[in-house]
Structures are given as structure tokens and as C-alpha cells.
Amino acid sequence: MALFILSPILFPLLGLLINALWGRRMSERAIGGVATLAAAAAFVVSMLMLGQLTAAEDARLTATIAPWIAAGALNVSFGFLVDRLSIVIMLIVTGIGTLIHMFSIGYMRGDERFQRYFIYLNLFLASMLTLVMADNFLVMFMGWELVGLCSYLLIGFWFKNLKNAEAGRKAFVVNRIGDVGFVLGILLIFVTFGSLSFADVFGQAEAQGETLAGAIGLITLLLFIGATGKSAQIPLFVWLPDAMAGPTPVSALIHAATMVTAGVYMMTRASALYELAPATQAIVALVGALTAFVAGTSALRQLDIKKVLAYSTVSQLGYMVAACGLGAFIAADFHLLTHAFFKAALFLAAGSVIHGIEHGMHAAHNSAPVDPQDMRYMGGLARKMPVTFAAFLLGGLALAGVPPLSGFFSKDEILLDAFKHNLPAFALLAVSSVVTAFYVGRQLTLVFAGRPRSEAAAHAVESNWLMTMPLIALTIGTVFAGLFNFPGAHPLTDWLAPVVRHGDAPKFDAPLAAVFSALAIGALAIAWFLYRNPDRAQAEAETGMGRLLAKAWCFDDAYRWAIVKPFYIISTVCAQVIDVGVIDAAVNGVGRLFHTLGNSLRSLQTGFVRNYGLVMLIGVVFVVAYFALNAR
Amino acid sequence: MTPDLPILIVLGAVSIASALGLLLSRNAIYAALFLVLNFGVGAVIYLVLNAPFIAVVQVSVYAGAIMVLFLFVIMLLGAERLSPGENPPGISFQRPLAIALGGVLLGLALYALFVRQPPTTATALADSSPTAIGLSLFGPYLFPFEVVSILLLVAMVGAVVLTRNR
Amino acid sequence: MDSTTFVALLSSVLFTIGVLGVLLRRSALLIFMSVELMLNAANLAFVAFAHRWVQLDGQIFVFFVMAVAAAEVAVGLALIVTIFRTKRSTNVDDLAALKG
């Protein structure tokens, strides 16, 4: 039974091992096939678990593999838990993961580190599933760090370009800042509750929540700091746009669909705690809404096809976090689910576009090389890449919140909750919603409409079936994922209700939905109208406001001036003044002292036996003197 | 003042003279012969001090065997001509320092002998005949005696191995 | 001054002369002879004090010293012969390989 519960983690590990041990002698297809099959096997096992979990409302599969830390009161084991919440995330991770593995076989073809790429990808799956299936905070943290590692490795996958390596480092460092909060939160949980297992902590919190309100408030705040790192919220969101330096399928899987939602998952898991901390809730809601607004507006002026999607991801994560802050944890999960589908579809479509442009660059020999991710050099791809276009269009409409696509339902639930509980947050989210539709329209127009604006775009061709198949599958998911929580039926709410707090179950509000649908369609139309003239994108980016937005409200610059530069100065002082002047000087001084001593003493060692005899005689005289003068 | 003292003074003077001869001689053969003389005088002093067995061993082992060996080696190597003692290269004040330290050593001995005045007891005649020494050697000192025999064997083998022509 | 004290005094003088011989002469053979002189000086002291305390052990010890001296001379002279074969000299200043 334990093996069965662990198998979603073990299958990717098995694939990883096969590829690591024998990958050198395997063809690319074989490597990709093994990795994809491993992911698919994990998906199948997750489906089987889903079947078992439908049996009862409080059904849960648990497995404790071995004790991990047993020190005094601290008792942590490698415990795993599959319940109605984790299975949802597991299905997303393994399902979308499988499709993206498959897409990667085509996308990464011919890469010199093809084998390593799939090893990392499988490692990511195993780590993410560890995070999701943990039954205590420490195992969760282990998975949390492991996915951070995979993220780092894959962002800097093409590390020969220094910018990519720097992006990986930035992601790593920024995430560690959040992790400090998470670790402190975990420590405080242990101090407060004397245990780290979910069951104990949440049970105690429920029983004596009132008396521990202060501690719980601090714990939730610290956990939220962890979430701002992993889920790219203000103030730590700056790493995610840079993370687009990694291969596009990685952006789709890790930096859009799964890993970045870990923070949301963690807060959902701890919903029992958050419910007891209204002050934290308010902060979370506001931070989420603000992130949604800042990132959404930043997406308006990006020229890189992936950067638009990256800021969009940050913005949508803001929605989810805001939903957590509003107490609508199930709405957050619902949006997580739909977002995983449509954002993965968008990213893969973008990857397909990039792939097509690169192909076009090779096909048109005499064309000037262009940045294959720059939307200024695209245009007119709708006819060249019909499947990609369809996927991008449907994904984009879902993101914009156009009914009846999935994003519409999930976003609407969050907006409704905000409208009911928190008007400032609602205002921010509502504006971002319109902004979202606008930048989606801008991107669609720039990339697919009009005429090709470069030789490369003119020669772009549709990607092969290995890449279009996952696209089609994800697009189908994008269209129909809304059914998971279709208004009136709300199956997802019913499914998660036993394990997740959800306040008052969100109801569908037709007038509000109608208003936002109309706004979204209107924004799309305006964007379409405005950006049919592609020079506008160029011109806008050069205005003052445009530059501010393109640089994402200058968060990076602010950090550079407020943190990086002073830190650099301190480091320089430490390295060049303190290290050289004090530490090195002390160490070298000791060395020089003995060198000098040795040099002066070495003249005594002449090599002449009689000299040695003389020295010996000196000693003898002293010994004899001692006995002659003192001894009786 | 004991009756032996005048004899001892004469013997001591000869002994010191022969030692100085060793120290100052320019020829290794002469040096060796001065040492033989010194050892011979030593044997007489042993007799005076009532140690006949040691006196005989001194003559046979030291003056006989060891010094013959020395002379043999000196002549074998043809190394009888010596340059006088010099400061070796290296420590420049070797000679004055050595002499000074020798003086200090001697001074310490004089101090111990005359200033600190070891207690004197009446000298009684102990039985120090060769018989007594033999009994002692094969009685309480049997083990060291056997060890010495092994030591001599090892020295013999070592000498043979070291001088073997390869 | 009794005879024991005198012999002890003689012993220390001879020992000092031996020390000076070791430190001042250059020939390995002379150095070696000086060492023998020092051993002999020590023997004198042993016998003198054995005489004073009416103890046989001092004489026994001298016997052992002589045995060790014999062994030492055998090995030492062998060493000198071997060194002479390679260095063509019994001068210890030619043997300065112990330099630091």
C-alpha cells in the first residue's frame, strides 16, 4: 500500500534513474519516451487514487515510510498523504506534466544536453509530487526546496549565455528570501503546536484557535512570506519574468502551471490556520490584488512574447493569492486548475511560435537574424501555424475571461468573492481583469494578425505532431476545465469542501459575470483595433509611462539601488579591506613570522657534525649544572 | 690524606698529560699511542682503587683490543697525518665556545666535588676479587650479561656487513 | 682530600679533555678516540665511587661500559672505513649533508 501511494513519486524517479544511467546510449526519442512514460505512469496512478478517494468524503491515503527526525519533542517522519486536495494538484501536475514532457521531445530536439533536460524534468515531477503529497510541513518544505532547485537548474539550463545563468541565480536568491519566512513559520508552528504534521496542527488550531490567535497570525504571515517567494507575489515576484530564460516548456510546466502555484497550494493546505487569522487574510488579499494589478499593467508594454505571459502568470497568481486572502480557498484552487490549463497552453503555443520562427530563420538564409521571441518581428502567423494559433487564441480568450472558456468561471468566482468581502481588492482585481483582456488582445494581434514583419516570420511553419498534440490536448482542457466548477453544480467545491475551508460557497452572479464578460470582449476589441498598426507597440514602449510599465514599475531598479548596490559595496569592503587588510594580513603575518624565525634559525643548522656536538654540549652543561647546583 | 694519594697524584699527572697529548697531537698514530698510555695509567689507578678485575679487563679490552683496532684502521686507511684542529665552517666561534663550555663543565665538577662536599665515610675493603665479580655477573646481572653478548654479536655482524665490498 | 675525590676530579678533567677533542678535532678517528677517552673518564668515576661506597655494582657497570665500548668501536670503525671508501677522507667537515 505504501508503495502504491508513493508510486507517483517513484515513477519519475525511476525514469530519472534510467535516463541518468543509460541515457548516453539511448536515442533522443528513447530518452524522451522514458521520461514521458514515467510522467504518464504517475498520472495513471493518480487516477487510480482518485478512484479510491471517491469512496468516502473523508477518505485519505496515508503512508509513513520511515522516521526522519526524532529529537526530543520534535518527531518528523517521511509521511505522505493523499486526500481530496492533494489529488487535484497531483492530477494537474502529472497530467499537464505528461503533455509537456511530450512537447519537450519535439521542442528540445537536437539540444546538446537533451538527456540532462529530461532528467531535470523528471526530478521536478518527483519533487513537486513530494511537496503536494507531504503530510507534514517539513516534508513539504523538502519538496518546496527541491522544486526550487529544479527551477534553478532549468532556468539556467542554457547557462552558456551569462544572462540565463544570472536569471537562474536571481530566481534562486529571491526564492531563498521567501524560504526564510517559510522556515521561520515552520519553526513557529513547532513551537506553538509541538508538532509539524498537518493533522495535529490543524486539529489543535481548530480546538484552541482563540487562545493562540496571536501565534497563528504570525505563523500565517510567515508562511505567506514563503508563498510570496514561490508564487511570485509583491515584493518577491521579480524573479519570475527573468525565469523565462529557461526553455519554454519549462516556463509552461514550472513557471506557470505547477511550481509557482505551490504557494497557493500551501496556503490552501493551511486554510484552517488562515481562517483564524483575519489580519493576515486582509494583508494576503491586498498583496494578491496589488500583484495582479502591477503585473497585469506591466504585461501591457512587454515586447517579448514570453515576458507578456510571465507577467500574466504573476498577475493570475495574484488572483489566486487574493482569493486565499478572501477566504475563498476553493476558488483559488479552481483558478489554479484552469490557469494551469490555459497558461500551459499559452506557453506551449508561444514555444511553438518561437520554434516556428527559429525554423523560419533557418529556412530564409539571407534574412537578418532576429530575436525569435520579439513580437515586433512576428505577425501573420495565424495562417502559417493554424493549430498553434487556435491554441493561443483559445488560451488567450480563457485568460481574458471570455465565456464560456474555463478562465471566465474561475476568475468570476474570485471577483465575486472580492466584491462581497473586500472592495479595495475588488477594485484592483477588476481593473486587472480588463487590463488582462487588453494585453491578450495586443499579443494576439501582434503575433498572429496582419502580415509577417520579418523574413523569419514569413518562413515560419507549423510544428510537428509531437508538439501540436499536447497543444490540442491542453486546449481542450482550456475550453472545458470550467466544467469542474460549473455554476449551479459546483462539483469541485463539493469535492474539496471536506478538506478545504471555503467560507460561504461562492454562487454565480449573472449580472457581474455579464459586466466583466462585456468588458473583456470590449478590451479585446479595442486592442485588436489599436495594434493592427504594429508600430504602435514600438512607439508606446518609448513613452515615459511605457518605459515604467515595461520595466514592471521599476521593482528591479529599486532593488538594485536599495539592496544589491549597498550589498555589493559592503561585500567589496569586506573583500578588499577587511579580508585583505585584516584576515589575510593576520594569516600572512603568522606565516611571515615563522618564515623569518626559520630563516634566522636555519643558519644554526650548518650540517657540520661538530657544530651539532657543540650545541649538544650546551645542553649537557645545563643538565649537569642542574644536578650539580640543585640536586642532592 | 690517605696513603694512596701520592701515587694517585703521580698517576693522575701522567694521565692528564697523555690526554692532552691526544688532544694536541698531529699524528693519528701518536694520538693512539697517547691513548694507550692513558688507558694503561687508568688500569693502574683501578688497581690502586682495589679493582683488579677491571684493571685487567681495561688492559686487555681497551689497551689491547680496541686500540689495536684503532691502529690497524689508521694504518689501513693511511690516515695518520692530521691537520690541526680548526674551526669548522659554520659556527664561527666553535673553538672559543667549546673551550669555554669545557671550562664551565669542569668548574661544575669542581663545585660538586669541593663546595658541596659529599659525605665521607670510612673506606673499608670490600671483597672485589674477580671471584666476587664473576659471581655477581652470573648471578644478579645474568640478564644484562646475556644482552651484552647479543650486543657484541650484533656489532660484529654489523661491522662485517658495513665493510663488505659490494 | 681523599683518593676518591681525587680520582673523581681526574675523571672530570679527562672528560673535559675528551669533550674538547670531540669538538675541536676534524679527524673522525681523533673524535672517536676522544669519545673513548670520555668513556674511560666515566669508568674512572664509577670505580672511584664503587671504592668509596664499598659496592661491587660500580665495577660491574664498568664491565658493561667496556663491552658496549667494544661494540661501538667495532661498528664505528667499520663506518669510518666505509665513509673513507666513498669520500677518500676521514675529515668530518667533508660530511655536511645534514644541512638545512
UniProtKB/TrEMBL annotation, chain B:
Superkingdom of the source species: Bacteria
EC code(s) of this entry: 7.1.1.-
Subcellular location: Cell membrane
Pfam family, one: Oxidored_q3
GO MF entries: NADH dehydrogenase (ubiquinone) activity; quinone binding
Protein topology in the membrane: Multi-pass membrane protein
Transmembrane regions: 6-24, 29-49, 55-77, 97-115, 141-162
Family listed: Belongs to the complex I subunit 6 family.
Name assigned to this protein: NADH-quinone oxidoreductase subunit J
Organism of this sequence: Candidatus Thermofonsia Clade 3 bacterium
Automatic annotation (TrEMBL), chain C:
One GO MF term attached to the UniProt entry: quinone binding
Leading EC class: translocase
EC assignment: 7.1.1.-
Residues spanning the membrane: 6-24, 31-54, 60-84
Compartments, record wording: Cell membrane; Membrane
Main subcellular location: membrane
UniProt record, GO biological process: ATP synthesis coupled electron transport
Record keywords, A-Z: Cell membrane, Membrane, NAD, Quinone, Translocase, Transmembrane, Transmembrane helix, Transport, Ubiquinone
Membrane topology term: Multi-pass membrane protein
Reactions that this protein is recorded to catalyse: a quinone + NADH + 5 H(+)(in) = a quinol + NAD(+) + 4 H(+)(out)
GO cellular component: NADH dehydrogenase complex; plasma membrane
Known function: NDH-1 shuttles electrons from NADH, via FMN and iron-sulfur (Fe-S) centers, to quinones in the respiratory chain. The immediate electron acceptor for the enzyme in this species is believed to be ubiquinone. Couples the redox reaction to proton translocation (for every two electrons transferred, four hydrogen ions are translocated across the cytoplasmic membrane), and thus conserves the redox energy in a proton gradient.
Family: Belongs to the complex I subunit 4L family.
Subunit and interaction comment: NDH-1 is composed of 14 different subunits. Subunits NuoA, H, J, K, L, M, N constitute the membrane sector of the complex.
This protein's name: NADH-quinone oxidoreductase subunit K
Organism: Candidatus Thermofonsia Clade 3 bacterium
